[in-house]
Amino acid sequence: MLHSISGTMTHHAYGKTNFEREKASGAGSLDQDYSVGIDPASGVFFNSDYRRHEDLKEMLDSNKDNLKLEAMKRIIGMIAKGRDASSLFPAVVKNVVSKNIELKKLVYSYLERYAEEKEDLALLSISTFQRALKEPNQLIRAGALRVLSGIRVSMIAPIVMIAIRDAAADMSPYVRKTAAHAIPKLYSLDNDTKPELIVIIEKLLADRTVLVIGSAVMAFTKVCPERVDLIHKVYLKLCALLGDVDEWGQVIIVNMLTRYARTQFTDPCKNDKDNGDRAFYDSESEASDKENTPTLDPDHRLLLRSARPLLQSRNAAVVMAVAQMYHHIGPKSETIAAVKALVRLLRSNPEVQELVLKTILTMTVTRKGAFDVYLKSFFVRTSDSTRIKLLKLNILTNIANESNISIILRELETYISSYDDDFVAATIQAIGRCACFITAVTDTCLSGLVTLLSNKNEVVVAESVVVIKRLLQTQAANPKEIIQQMIRLLDSIDVAQARASIIWLLGEHCRDIPTASNVLKRAAKSFSNEEDIVKLQVLNLAVKLYISDKEQYDLLCQYIFNLSKYDQNYDIRDRARLLRNFIDNPSNKLAASAAKIFLSCKPAPTYRTSEESDLYQLGSLSHSINSKANGYEPLPPWPEVAPPNVREVEPAQVVSTQSEAKLEKIFHSWETESSSELSEEAEGSGESDESSESDNKSSSSDEHTSSSSDSSSGDEDDEDEEEEEEEEDSSLETEEGDNVILTEPEAEKLFDNVPQKKTEKSNLDLLLDLEMNDQNFGGGPILTPSLGGFLSPVTSVTNNVQAIQVVPSVDIPIKTSEVLNRINGKGLSISYRFTRNPHLFSPSMVNLNLVFTNSTSEEISDIRVGEKTLSPGMSVHEFACITSLNPNSSLPGTLGIDFNDSLHPANLQIISSLGSSNICLKPDVGELLRPVTMSEEYFLKEQIKLKGMNEHVGIVSCKETNLKQKIYQAANLGLCPSHDNDLRFAGQTLTSSSLVLVSATRKDVEVTITVNCEKLVLGSMLLNTLKSVLQ
């Protein structure tokens, strides 16, 4: 629309419109008429409103829709540029009855903007708006409701209420969303409508469309935030749909659920151990989660898990909302999840940076260790504004500890040479804070600050004096030498605050400084020319010296007090009048207690800034300005005892032990059927693949051969499918003759239990083991045309086979991941897991076990793979087509993917009777390997070959005793001959059979991990995975 507006404005500027040409061809010209009737003495030539928008008014009064449409585009363009177009309201409002849909949209957009300013004229069109609420076009209905609710006249509140009630039941979700936005407007116009509005809000909260949910929650927070009983009914739905709502709705829902959690759950930080020092990428295994995860209410845990994926949102407001939720209602050990997301936002524009830094500054007060890893992200850049620089300095001093203080001090030292005086002063203050908090560097900081006293920049000198004064108050070092050096610089310092600080320090330690009398004499000589703050400290110094030696300083003190008696500033006169009582009357009570009053130890100053307070909710306006803003509601306190759970929970489907045994039999029969199908397909395609066996790794040849085999054996497949359906029906019959329906919870439980049960190997499994031991699956085919057939020498290959032996996988993953949920799949959901077994079609393929679940009430048929989007070198062997999937049941499938030793995802299209859906299968780096073993001598020999850039080393702190199991879980590796504290593992990449050597050496709690691999990226990613698992 803006493009058409700009084009219209350009056309109007450089060419005449049809209206102008018709006007120019008329009998008389309006310009000529006006030019004759103007009196120059009236001054209308200097009036900016003279014939203002006259051409637009005439175009709006025309009978041609194209002229009206062009005029409205120009008017909307004026509004977009911030120009006032309210004078055109009478001419625009007349066109609200137009039959042109495009024109009516623009008129409604104009009326939404100026309906509040021109209430009387807008009231004349209420009947038109009411008729528009029945229009078949949803945009017209929504626009009419938006304009009607924007008229701020209390007498039409009943009309607006009826319109909102009807719109809340509209078939269009866009109209229902508009009704939710109109509710707060009506409530602010008439508070008596609250009971009726609550009923409408409850109805909108139960809406199943994600387009409406965010607006409904917004209306809830504006009208009735105290009615938490309305959220009880939809709590689970809000958590489930949180990722599907628009970004604006996500912010609203997260903030509302944060307040809801503060009233319905107990504080999780009471018994939570702070694991802020833990790295961000931590092990996600069930064992570590049980150790580090505090006990939370299941609904509380559900909220945190539902919001966690939003930390990867591209919208900064969404990330900030989730981060503040983790800070306010999450355990301290889980706040680490929001840390990296906040650091990522520091790459945004300066406005976002400032808000994020304020949030991080508040979080560092209680969670310092969480930001240690990202220390360099808070280093100041020359392009940063002064405000951002100061925030980063405060964060650096907050996260400083004995391990990183040397890095921070070196960084702060470079900031002192900056041209920004405010930033330099703040840097010196930051050095003082570090010296105060960390006693190990106090002497170093003090010596550095003392050297700054000879700096040419007086701002540096003045701030150094002030900071040294604060440090000496903490009794961190012997002040005598430092004060004497500062006294020597007193005459060269002109900044009043610095001079006052030196004199104050001298007064505090006047008994130990022999040159104090000389300083007082020089101060008395220049007393009349000093600043007020310096005069006050001179008076204090005089009294302190008088108390220590009355005879020596009596006359000097009298002279200074006489000067103060006639000073222009009344503060100086009042201070002199007060302190004279300690000198003139030695017998009074004040003089007797003078030493206790003036020479006592003063408390050390606090270094906590007001911006670090946790008084306000993070991300709110009050937190940004560090002051309570109008309309701010503080977070409710945690309840001591959690209220009873009244949230609606779906009843869990319990599977009996008999049904579990039957399901295991069903699953075993499905596996054998699917493996037999794959073997038949492999045999059927073997004849057609002999000619292209050398190009077996290319995806194009795979697709060609699979399609040719499918076409050649179509009739046989139909017969096989009929037989398989009969076998499946018979296998689903129980001993009592009943049919077993495999529901989604049963399928999930099936995945968890079946792999753990040890079963006897079939003939096919024994044959696979024999092939693995004989051919090594990675030594490369011996019979190839390029090697000369049967008579080609195979010495190197046989040597590798003898030295490297393939072993079965030790750890079989049982964790499933959902790749297609039932919402995006229109009722069909798909989950998968890595089996770590070789695929029958090709040993270079990763074997994935898929489970298809039908969540609908109708049968799903013809489930198969459609288009494939793969990176070069990747190939896919499709699963067997599923002809029929009964309602509320599940069926497995086997999929083979050759990732070509890369981490590029495989994007597949799943086609069924419901339509098509896209899935993305991402490989884990540990699943791209096959386990092998070798002798210790051969291991060390190959490890020496893979040095330099092919070697990746990392050190982690690990208290885990069973390192083998952790490494087996992370990567599909085999164990080589090892020692107690020196473990060796080996593997080969599936496609290129490149060696991957892993060694783990333990020394106390530190574990050194070394990964040697020809593929640099794969080796680096494997090292990161092992480090995250062991930490």
UniProtKB/TrEMBL annotation:
The keyword Mitochondrion is assigned to this record: no
- Asked if Cell membrane is a keyword of the record, the answer is no
Keyword annotations from UniProtKB, A to Z: Cytoplasmic vesicle, Golgi apparatus, Membrane, Phosphoprotein, Protein transport, Transport
* SMART domains membership: AP3B1_C
- Composition skew (Basic and acidic residues), residue ranges: 694-705
Q: InterPro entries recorded for this chain?
A: AP3_beta, AP3B1/2_C, AP3B_C, AP_beta, ARM-like, ARM-type_fold, Clathrin/coatomer_adapt-like_N
| Localization per Swiss-Prot or TrEMBL | Cytoplasmic vesicle, Clathrin-coated vesicle membrane; Golgi apparatus
Q: Which SUPFAM superfamilies match?
A: ARM repeat
Q: Where is the composition biased (Acidic residues)?
A: 678-693, 713-738
Disordered, as annotated region: 276-298, 669-746
Q: How does it sit in the membrane?
A: Peripheral membrane protein
Give residue ranges for domain AP-3 complex subunit beta C-terminal: 760-904
The job of this chain, per UniProt, is described as: Subunit of non-clathrin- and clathrin-associated adaptor protein complex 3 (AP-3) that plays a role in protein sorting in the late-Golgi/trans-Golgi network (TGN) and/or endosomes. The AP complexes mediate both the recruitment of clathrin to membranes and the recognition of sorting signals within the cytosolic tails of transmembrane cargo molecules. AP-3 appears to be involved in the sorting of a subset of transmembrane proteins targeted to lysosomes and lysosome-related organelles.
Family, according to the entry, reads as follows: Belongs to the adaptor complexes large subunit family.
Q: What is this protein called?
A: AP-3 complex subunit beta
Annotated organism of origin? Nicrophorus vespilloides
